[in-house]
Amino acid sequence: MQEGLYLRDCYLKEFDAIIENVKDEKYIILDKTAFYPVSGGQPHDTGNIVCNDQEYNIVFVGKFDGKISHEIDKEGLKEGDKVRCIINWNRRYKLMRMHTAAHILDSVIHNESGAMFTGNQLGEDKSRLDFNLEKFDREKMKSYIEKANEEINKNKDVKITFMPKDEAEKLSMLLDWDYGDMKELRVIEIEGIDKQPCGGTHVKNTSEIKRIEFVSVENKGQGRKRLYFKLSE
């Protein structure tokens, strides 16, 4: 399995790499990468690969058979090329802020209501969280967001650690999540607020989130509630 550089350093914006494999002219495997592949409700990174003064735009990043694959917008790269890789930092950082905000909001809603987190989709402009929550109360959802903002304002550090799978699984608020045959899981800890297994990108301190704002709520059926939120700039 290829370990993404983002797992240990979410703030790595540029890096050098060597092209390990090229498939169908546009699907690139690097010997190492910091580009995040679409996973766990977090969209893939975008950015550029530069080689011999030519720039190739990355339009999709996914993980297949344990390898992170980068789809580029034109042909020209070949195996063995030494390249400079540049992440679209504006997009990445928005998603980092969103992801850490989602963890805080997950934790607050779980602690306040006992609801389990069942899914999410992060976005640059707004994100959604799904819960197995029976009672549907718009004002209560707004109060959860305010409690989350109180936690954000405490300027807590966000730590990355790695734990044995059997220990990390006990921390999860997710229902029916399959971690496969991994022996070790990456854990995101927001001091005094939340501690969860997670492979996504996050900010270093809650102060970077600024503030969560309520957008809307939806009733998706019995015991299924969906909350949309955004972040203030």
Following the backbone from N to C, one meets helices and strands in this order, namely: EEEEEEHEEHEHEEEE
Instruction: Assess the beta-strand content as a share of residues.
Output: 35-45%
CATH architecture of the largest domain: 2-Layer Sandwich
CATH level-four homologous superfamily name of the largest domain = Threonyl-trna Synthetase, Chain A, domain 2
Q: Compute the number of structural domains.
A: 2
Q: Gyration radius, to the nearest Å?
A: 19 Å
Shape: elongated
Largest sheet: 6 strands, antiparallel, barrel
What is the CATH C-level name of the largest domain?
A: Alpha Beta
Protein structure class: alpha+beta
Q: What's the overall average pLDDT, rounded?
A: 92
What is the number of strand segments? 13
Please bin the fraction of helical residues: 10-25%
Biggest β-sheet: strands ordered side by side in the sheet = 1-2-5-4-3-6
Low-confidence stretches: none
CATH domain fold name of the largest domain: Threonyl-tRNA Synthetase, Chain A, domain 2
Ends apart, CA distance between termini: 37 Å
Number of helices: 3
